[in-house]
Amino acid sequence: MDERDASIKESLNSVKDTSSEVKQLEDEATAIMRAARAEISAALNQMKKETSVEVEAKLAQGRKKVEAELAEALAKLEDSKEETIKSLDSQISALSQDIVNKVLPI
């Protein structure tokens, strides 16, 4: 009977020792997970910053290109406007002369 009691006590102590080891392992696992999450979060934040910088650079480049194309198109439009006005001026002069010739025959 004493042997059996001793065996049971030994088994209980062994289980208690094991449960403390399990608790320690759980604590270590929790600490590792916490550290991994922090590392992943830092890496994600860094990637977001880098991506943001790249996107801003590409947007600025695209904006410059569009502004240059717009300036070129506006310059061409202004040239076209001036040519049209010159053409209309010459047509107005010719038409005025025709009207004068018809109204006041010489």
UniProtKB/TrEMBL annotation:
Pfam families: ATP-synt_B
Major localization class: membrane
Membrane topology listed for this record: Single-pass membrane protein
Keyword Transmembrane: yes
Annotated GO CC locations: proton-transporting ATP synthase complex
Protein name per UniProt: Uncharacterized protein
Similarity comment: Belongs to the ATPase B chain family.
Region listing for Disordered, in residue ranges: 1-21
Subcellular location: Membrane
Coiled coil regions, renumbered to chain: none
